[in-house]
């Protein structure tokens, strides 16, 4: 690993270039969308982690999700990378650039076009946006996989402190924080939800801005338009609380490491149903992605039933792919209680399961 300190006229930067080599690349075909290969670096006194995702799902923008779309085009699959700050930042803001490109060790092929992302890291933001390096289906024919090995050249540049006394920079948006505090304080709340013995205060206008279902409920002439109390049936209080937190902050901490993996998967199942019920498309897709990365023998059938009931095409495809990947896997899934539930609740999906098994000739 090489570190070059470069003194500039206006600032300083520390740059590190390293080759990330992935041997046995064919085995990454078995990795799910949320699974990654990691490599750690120490740069500028901070510990960093490069995460390589061989099957990253890139979804449409939120505003596009508000309208009907063809299931085939709701996401694309990429080879992608992210940069994670592992250690605590030694200053308030770390301005960092990650640049990645595919290289051929034999130099018989020119490097691919570099893809970059810049991010300001701090105590509350330790993950960069993803670098979409190449569409997954284009990689096998690109020529960069040599002897079942892929090499990515990663360059991390950490900018030094800037003298901004004469050029004030506005702080990052704190709207998420303020709305979260508004939800917690209950100031100005005009509706109270009663869910499984617990009560939650909220603001009709914020709910309506985030959910077309709530908009119709509170501003569409329905019974709840003037009501200050709403009873929510068939939902756990913890699930409703998490959904409400997402509506205000666009975050679901229960799905991002706050809970143990099994508890997080159960919460994702319940949140997916809640998101579908209230038209929260982004939350629904987040739950789909979370569940797709944890499909196993014990959960495949129940997750397939959930995907069928709530029209989750991405999750459904992942479940069918898992169940039919081998005769042994299929037999094991058929022996679970979840499969009995699938037969009882979603008998029509069995035809698709049989078709997928036939196509794979298992």
UniProtKB/TrEMBL annotation:
Domain BTB: start-end pairs: 189-250
Pathway where it operates: Protein modification; protein ubiquitination
Domain of life assignment: Eukaryota
Database matches in InterPro entries: BACK_BPM_SPOP, BPM1-6, BTB/POZ_dom, MATH/TRAF_dom, SKP1/BTB/POZ_sf, TRAF-like
CDD domains linked to this entry: BTB_POZ_BPM_plant, MATH
Family in the record: Belongs to the Tdpoz family.
Name of this protein: BTB domain-containing protein
Organism: Urochloa decumbens
């Amino acid at each position: 690993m090489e570190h070059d300190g470069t003194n500039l006229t206006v600032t300083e930067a520390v740059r590190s270039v390293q080759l990330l080599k992935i041997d046995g690349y064919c085995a990454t075909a078995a990795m799910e969308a949320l699974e990654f290969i990691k490599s750690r670096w120490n740069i500028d006194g901070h510990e960093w982690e490069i995460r390589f995702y061989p099957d990253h799902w890139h979804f449409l923008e939120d505003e596009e999700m508000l309208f009907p779309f063809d299931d085939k085009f709701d996401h694309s699959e990429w080879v992608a990378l992210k940069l994670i700050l592992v250690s605590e930042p030694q200053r308030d803001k770390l301005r960092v650039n990650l640049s990645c490109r595919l290289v051929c060790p034999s130099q018989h092929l020119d490097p691919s076009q570099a893809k970059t992302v810049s991010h300001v890291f701090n105590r509350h933001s330790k993950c960069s946006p993803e670098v979409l390096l190449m569409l997954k289906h284009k990689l096998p024919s690109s020529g960069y996989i040599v002897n079942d090995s892929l090499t990515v050249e990663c360059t991390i540049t950490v900018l030094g402190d800037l003298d901004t006394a004469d050029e004030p920079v506005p702080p990052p948006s704190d709207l998420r924080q303020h709305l979260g505090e508004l939800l917690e304080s209950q100031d100005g709340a005009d509706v109270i939800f009663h869910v499984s013995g617990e009560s939650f205060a909220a603001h009709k206008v914020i709910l309506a801005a985030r959910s077309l279902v709530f908009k119709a409920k509170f501003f569409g002439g329905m019974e709840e338009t003037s009501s200050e109390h709403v009873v929510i049936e068939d939902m756990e209080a913890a699930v409703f609380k998490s959904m409400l937190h997402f509506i205000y902050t666009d975050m679901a901490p229960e799905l991002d490491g706050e809970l143990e993996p099994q508890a997080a998967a159960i919460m994702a199942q319940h949140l997916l149903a809640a998101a579908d019920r209230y038209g929260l498309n982004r939350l629904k897709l987040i739950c789909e992605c979370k569940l797709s990365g944890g499909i196993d023998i014990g959960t495949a059938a129940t997750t397939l039933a959930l995907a069928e009931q709530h029209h989750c095409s991405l999750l459904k495809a992942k479940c069918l792919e898992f169940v039919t990947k081998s005769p042994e896997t299929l037999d094991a899934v058929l022996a679970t209680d979840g499969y009995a539930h699938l037969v009882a609740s979603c008998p029509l999906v069995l035809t698709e399961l049989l078709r997928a098994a036939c196509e794979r000739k298992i």
